[in-house]
Request: fold
Amino acid sequence: MIVSWLIIVIALPIFAQTEINSAVAKDYLNQTVVVVAKVGGVRESPDGTKPHYINLGKDYPNQDLTLVVFGIFAQKYPYKLNDLQGKSLKVRGKITDYKGRLQIKEPEILAVF
Reply:
């Protein structure tokens, strides 16, 4: 019984996920987090061969964070990306830097509200 509790206590931080607003994304560079933010703008690739961009907080070029969804992978979401404009998202992914801009590639979208 003690061993079971010890395993739970040790494993708990592994499953815990930091939840942040996109405005503080820069403080979590190279970390996997859950981000809750309003969609400021969406740029879809017309033919699906290039990445789609979902800007959080504000629209490009003043966005806090960009979600990058590569063409073919956009089909895995149960809605059109353009329909996300003005909605709030809860997403999970690793924040990285690309040419001085923060991004999450292939985010897991947990909720749209």
